[in-house]
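Protocol step 4 of 5: obtain the predicted structure for the target chain.
Materials: sequence only (see below). No template structures provided, no constraints applied. The aim of this step is simply to have a reference model before the mutagenesis design in step 5. Sequence pasted as it appears in the construct record:
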Amino acid sequence: MSSKITEPEISLLVDTFYSKVRLDPDIGPIFNAIVGDWPHHLATLKDFWSTVLLTTGRYKGDPMMTHLQLPLDPDHFSRWLALFAETAHEVLRPAHAATVIAKSQRIAENFKAGIALQRSTVS
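Step 4 output (structure tokens):
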């Protein structure tokens, strides 16, 4: 059994998680308002997580700039992280869930800091 997370696990995590996000009353409306093509967006997210977790280099975007354009506040990040952790525990082995949850928390902290910095320089 491999100790590394696999592409099928990443795919299952992303698909399961974003099916929850789309229905979530707090963060669903934000994502549903800006994502016009969910299959394309999910493919991009799988590339992102493959790059983060497996260093595949498939993701070429700028997630910070993308998220700076969204109307996000700390409560949105908390909800996203809670749903993500819940989903990771549901679909991944415990060690893999712990790894992706830790990565997601670091990414969220970076995004929150970037958004706070942008708002402090704009206002």
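Step 4 remarks: The chain has one domain: 7-122. The radius of gyration is 14 Å.
Proceed to step 5.
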